[in-house]
Design brief:
11 helices, globular
Length: 320
């Protein structure tokens, strides 16, 4: 995260406008996706789309928290520590959720392609919502552990103090550093092993199939896109070290380097979610286009009726 004293007003304004615009743009797209899902009951009984909506909602929350904190570091950097920790817990939970959700979605595609006869029995709606609840619980554990460490190592009065709300100020003990190493190793190992295993199993099924392999190849490409999205998400773990290296070579461009790192590792990965399903999935794309084309037609009809009413009133008033 950039420090406000590194930027002049114009540079800070441009950066914040870019981040806010991208945040609003991504959340508008995701909002349309969620609305399409809610308005069409055909998706409500499909575990695939339910899991996808979980990812979209998670991304929306993450974008809101991330962009808000980014803007606050410029506009109002010093505020109550308890509020800062609350925002941090929400952001950390949604950040940890993303790779776990991607792993769950890859497993669902693996079952659908490799075990199609058992898919309906295994991936029920009830079980899908249980998996979603577990996902949020698992994502919340590291954030809770961070706060517990802070409570154990700092006085209670610390939470009523005023502080500059950045990660290094919140979690800067040796216990946090060790916790980060353990959590990243466990979480990322599980997610990557899951994606690799499901991908190769889907590839093997596609090659062994005698009939139409279109659905298997599509699932294969979907898992690959999950991997690409995960790679982008993992940049958030690498960028602090990369920032240090780049800043050591280009110290005068510190502000620009941290800005680009934040943009690439936190904002851009959330643009892939609409690409993976909303654009590539023909069923979802069809319902989304039909729903919003109907909305446009209704709006046009209403406008036409209003114009006709206005014109008739003008005629009547002219005759009177």
């Amino acid at each position: 995260m950039n420090f406000t004293n590194r930027d002049d007003f114009e540079e800070a304004l441009v950066k914040n406008l870019i981040i806010v615009f991208l945040g609003i743009f991504i959340n508008c797209i995701n909002g349309i996706i969620v609305l399409t899902f809610c308005k069409n009951s055909v998706f409500h009984s499909d575990s695939r789309y339910i899991l996808y909506m979980n990812l979209v909602v998670n991304d929306m929350i993450l974008i809101c928290v991330s962009v808000t904190l980014y803007v606050l570091t410029y506009a109002y950097p010093n505020f109550n520590a308890a509020v800062c920790y609350t925002w941090s817990v929400i952001g950390s939970t949604t950040h940890m959720n993303t790779p776990i959700i991607l792993a769950g979605m890859a497993i669902e595609r693996y079952i659908a392609i490799c075990k199609p006869l058992h898919h309906a029995q295994i991936c029920t709606v009830h079980r899908t919502y249980i998996i979603i609840a577990l996902t949020w619980g698992v994502g919340f554990v590291p954030a809770l552990a961070d706060v517990i460490i802070v409570i154990a190592t700092r006085p209670i009065g610390f939470f009523s103090s005023i502080m500059f709300c950045i990660y290094l100020n919140l979690y800067n003990t040796k216990y946090h550093a060790e916790k980060v190493k353990v959590v990243q190793a466990l979480y990322m190992s599980f997610v990557w092993l899951t994606l690799i295993y499901t991908y190769f199993m889907i590839v093997r099924t596609a090659r062994a199939a005698k009939g139409d392999t279109a659905s298997a190849k599509k699932a294969q490409n979907t898992v690959l896109l999950h991997g690409a999205q995960l790679l982008l998400c993992m940049l958030s773990y690498i960028t602090p070290l990369l920032d240090i290296v780049l800043i050591s070579f280009f110290p005068i461009h510190r502000s620009k380097i941290t800005f680009l790192s934040y943009l690439i590792s936190n904002i851009m990965p959330r643009l892939l979610s609409p690409l993976i399903y909303s654009v590539r999935d023909q069923t979802f794309a069809k319902h989304m286009l039909q729903y919003y084309s109907c909305k446009v037609i209704i709006v046009k009809v209403k406008l036409k009726r209003r114009r006709l009413k206005c014109s008739s009133k003008r005629v009547c008033s002219f005759k009177g």
